[in-house]
Amino acid sequence: MSTNNYDKIAFIYEKLSKVILGKEFVRSKDLFLQNILEDMDVWVIGGGTGAIIPEILIKNGLTGKLVYSEASQKMLQRARKRVSSKDEDRVHFYREERFHWPFASKADIVICQYLLDVLIDQQIHNFFKALEKAINPNTQLIFADFYPHSRKSLFIKAMISAFRCITNHPRKDLPDYDFFFERYGWKTQEEFQIQGGFIRVKCLVKA
Ligand SMILES: C[S@@+](CC[C@H](N)C(=O)[O-])C[C@H]1O[C@@H](n2cnc3c(N)ncnc32)[C@H](O)[C@@H]1O
After folding, report:
1. Domains of the chain, each with CATH number or no CATH
2. Is the pLDDT at 1 greater than 50, yes or no?
């Protein structure tokens, strides 16, 4: 059974997140997209309304695939609209939450932006186990999320409470991301910290 339900807020998600979290949150999702090169196969998991799709499709050229796995039907509907007919054949949308990579060839880049914070720990374990089947030794994991921050603790609490009501958000805290990176052998290659480390965007590779 689905825990998170973003269908209800898909129509307003982008505007709402920009108002609450600001332009830096929006811009954080562009960081490391320049690592996507011609022909690369990209897997976006929990990408929401798909704002980064056009940029990915410019970067991975005419033949790179994009796999887009998203749990919310309404989010997926919005994401589909970002793809023009000339790119349709190389974009594969899946409404699913099992973290399934559908090809025998491996993903060059996996993107999870503001996804892990909405998953319970068991789902995060499942996420990292699923990645093992989808990656090659050079695959890059582009990650963005909120970290605990002393000056933001009230804001984090309020944000979590609001999302528990609106989307059935299943957590009461933020995950210990670094525990998972270490447990599954992902090493940070480069990192940006925004708002004093409240938002962290990392490019990770297998250690
Ligand atoms: C907080 S939103 C982030 C959306 C977008 N990545 C962004 O940066 O704004 C989390 C998204 O993850 C999706 N999601 C939650 N659990 C998922 C799962 N198990 N598999 C795929 N998507 C999931 C939700 O439907 C929602 O669209």
Report:
1. 7-206 (3.40.50.150)
2. no
Q: Could you tell me the strand order of the sheet in which 42-45 lies? A: 91-95, 66-70, 42-45, 107-113, 135-146, 199-206, 186-194
End-to-end alpha carbon distance in the chain: 34
The model's pTM is: 0.97
Q: What is the pLDDT of residues 25-62, one digit of tens each?
A: 999 999 999 999 999 999 999 999 999 999 999 999 99
Cα–Cα distance, 195 to 172 (Å, whole number)? 22
70 in contact with ligand 1, CB cutoff 6 A: yes
Q: Which atom of ligand 1 is nearest to the CA of 13?
A: 9
Phi, psi of 161 (to 5 degrees): -60, -45
Ligand 1 and 10: CB distance under 6 A? no
